[in-house]
Amino acid sequence: TDIDGIGADLAGKIETLLDTGRLPLLDDLQRQIPAVVFELMRVPGLGPKKVKALVEELAIDSLDALEQACRDGRVREVKGFGAKTEATILENIAFAKSPEHSRLLWEEADTIVQPLLAWMRECPAVRQAEGAGSWRRGRETVGDIDIVVDSDAPIAVMDHLLAWKECGDVILRGDTKTSVRGPRGVQIDLRVVEHGSFGAAWQYFTGSKDHNVRLRSRARDRGFTINEYGVFTLVPGHGVEAKPMKGKAVAGRTEKDVYAAVGLPWIPPEIREGGDEIARAERGDVPKLVTLDDIRGDLHMHTTATDGEATLGEMVRASIARGLSYIAITDHGQRVTMAHGLDKKRLLKQWGEIDRLNESLAEDGTPPIVVLKGIEVDMLEKGGLDLPDDVLEQADWVVASLHYGQNQPRDRITRRIIEAIENPHVSVIGHPTGRLINRRPAYDVDIEAVIENAARTGTFLEINANPWRLDLDDHHAAAAKKAGVKLVISTDAHSTRGLDVMRCGVLQARRAGLEPGDVANTRTLAQMKKLAGR
Ligand code: DGT
Ligand code: CA
Ligand code: CA
Ligand code: ZN
Description:
By secondary structure, the chain is α/β, with parallel strands linked by helices. The chain has 21 helices and 17 strands. It has helices at 8-20, 24-32, 36-41, 48-58, 63-71, 83-97, 106-121, 133-137, 154-162, 198-206, 209-221, 255-261, 277-282, 312-321, 344-361, 389-392, 410-422, 447-457, 474-482, 502-511, 525-532; strands at 104-105, 128-131, 141-142, 145-150, 170-173, 177-181, 187-193, 224-227, 230-235, 245-251, 297-298, 326-329, 370-378, 397-401, 428-429, 460-464, 487-490. The strands form four sheets. The protein has a seven-stranded parallel sheet. It has a five-stranded mixed sheet with strand order 2-4-7-6-5, with helices on both faces. Strands 8-9-10 form a three-stranded antiparallel sheet. Helix 14 links the parallel strand 11 (297-298) and strand 12 (326-329). It is globular, with a radius of gyration of 27 Å. Bound molecules: 2'-deoxyguanosine-5'-triphosphate, calcium ion (CA) (2 copies) and zinc ion. One calcium ion (CA) binds at residues 133-134, 143-144, 146.
């Protein structure tokens, strides 16, 4: 009970849970609520109220039953639903069911990959163990996990994987290759290769497939063949039917050697997607991608004033601990009633606290961090923002986001966002497409028009680092860069731990080919403010 936010009641529950492993209150609630409720709540747009109505009125007992009820036109008859809602539910069920949307988020995969690699590196037979595949390329989602090990003793290495405490069923076992089920049922593919092939194998299993195909065809043009064991000279075969034979190995120990053998500099994994990366590398134009170390500020976060879990002071201390030199506190505006959004009075009170905090931080000379007075305003369904200009003009930083009316038609959504872009007080558009990976598609928006108008007005666009969001995505962020728009990578943290997702946003930025100069929050505060025109 000494911990902030834990009272006698919660402490009692924790004690019961620790003593008995169960919580009677939870058991009670679970008995009262049918399991199907949770299944239905996974459908985007279906909250507890709507699900309750569906279960009670239509006796829906499965996702399939709900799908059928939509097709039969029964859902529209329920009070509070209509034909439009019914059609949206049907679309969203299809979205929730698609295998495309059942892959692990990158961050979920990462929490498996890190301990897995640490475990493999404990094996005495392992010279080097590295992650490959989509995880290494930093994709938004990961289908299966690929790891590559350098060792002369493949059997011992594969046995070591099977001895991992998280290791489940064995799917396949060969001489140098093993596939098993790991946590959350994810497949883990292990490849063991000899020292001289490690770089080639790591490159090959990192992919992407498209990138490898292009690299192989480039190798052929230069008289080489390239595979997971190395780069080899091609020995022309004899006769019309004969295939070229593999000759001498020219590279394989490191990735750098592999690329060098085909006349290329090393290419960062995040851009190995089979786009123009090989052509660019050939011209010596490999981007110096932004890194987590380049990030100086975090310009989107919440506190207990709205729906955050940590207080202003806690967020500031946690930001200092993470080495940030400036942050913006951006709680929700009043439209977000669910999160107890701030009206003018409460916002000005928070800004007063921030002023006092900055003063106390500066008391002993240079402050460790500067806290900007920010707000995340909502773009209203009817247009406009949820706080007036005379308030916003006093802010240091304004994020404008669209949380409501996401089903509006394309032209209305686009108009709402452009209107926010045109407001001179708005610094950045937050999570510009509104998608939630695996859970909810983006709202229908003309993103080209958004980018164009952001470029025209000097408004920033966000790459939201939350692993469920990650929008703008890599393609859109690259388009924004091309149009001259600066991006801001922000955590949108709702807790102190939420600040740690910055690396996910940086990965997305890297996939977009962004360099430090393309990202506003790599600047010092003074430079960033200048860039923002504030
Ligand atoms: P995922 O697992 O669906 O998230 O995506 P990846 O990229 O991890 O794909 P995965 O696990 O099937 O294969 C890992 C890498 O191995 C892939 O990125 C490239 C390489 N690879 C796999 N199959 C082939 C292939 O048929 N040809 C070539 N060139 N490379 C392949
Ligand atoms: Ca994979
Ligand atoms: Ca794989
Ligand atoms: Zn937010």
